[in-house]
């Protein structure tokens, strides 16, 4: 395998492709993907006081002025994505009400969106089969090879071990939870971290939505219905969009949507099946 890594957007991003292959194509793909992610970091980081996102948050740039900004089309795309996720989650995901006190922070939607675009740029450079892993959020492209990739889902209660393995030729896998980054997802209705679930994994064709749905699911679980609410929401999501999900609660119990076992190895499917109850 050929592997390139880059520290960007507060995490480590890797690009992996089969070897043998054209080294020049791989290098061009990696350069294009990583350059895009650095660009996104400059535009969308809430930790850079001069970024457009920080200026919007601090009241220095009204949303109405986005259209005239040099990167206005990208900013508008992310704002629209945040609004889509807010509607889909019944307000549980709200980029305008993150933390205490509530403030504007679209990070819950940006990483998957940025990685999806970076993956497309790598493919446009001729790298038809590859994996882009952005801090655990993964976008896979199969190219002409019919063989699936194997994507491990970590166990949030046992660091360094796998809970299960997904087999995907093409698509995305996004995992959100507090095991790696602490409790960073907030329920806008309480202004407190959403901690009902330890982890949510969502898989589907597009990393933009898989990442957004995984983040939103943690917040949905924080309402008065807890796990029942998020299970109902993820079931409806799977039925309407095809995106499948796996959750792990704070005691280690797993739950998944009915289509997920089709993507698992047999031993993992048996294990999760007995855990689902």
Distance between the termini: 39 Å
Instruction: Order the strands across the largest sheet as they lie in space.
Output: 1-2-3-4-7-10-11-12
C-alpha geometry = globular
What's the number of helices? 8
Strand content: 15-25%
- How many strand elements? 12
What's the CATH class label? Alpha Beta
Uncertain stretches:
266-271, 273-277
* Helix amount: 25-40%
CATH fold field value: T-fold
Biggest β-sheet strands, sense, barrel: 8 strands, antiparallel
Structure write-up:
It is a single chain. Helix 1 (23-44) packs antiparallel against helix 4 (107-124) and helix 4 (107-124) runs antiparallel to helix 6. This protein starts with a strand and ends with a helix. It has helices at 23-44, 52-57, 72-88, 107-124, 178-181, 207-220, 226-241, 266-276, and strands at residues 2-8, 11-17, 129-134, 137-142, 149-154, 162-168, 171-177, 186-187, 192-193, 197-204, 244-249, 254-256. The model is unreliable at 266-271 and 273-277 (pLDDT under 50). It is built from eight helices and twelve strands. The chain has 277 residues and is α+β, with helices and mostly antiparallel strands. It has one domain (2-276): T-fold.
Keywords:
8-stranded antiparallel β-sheet; T-fold; globular; disordered C terminus; alpha+beta; 277 residues
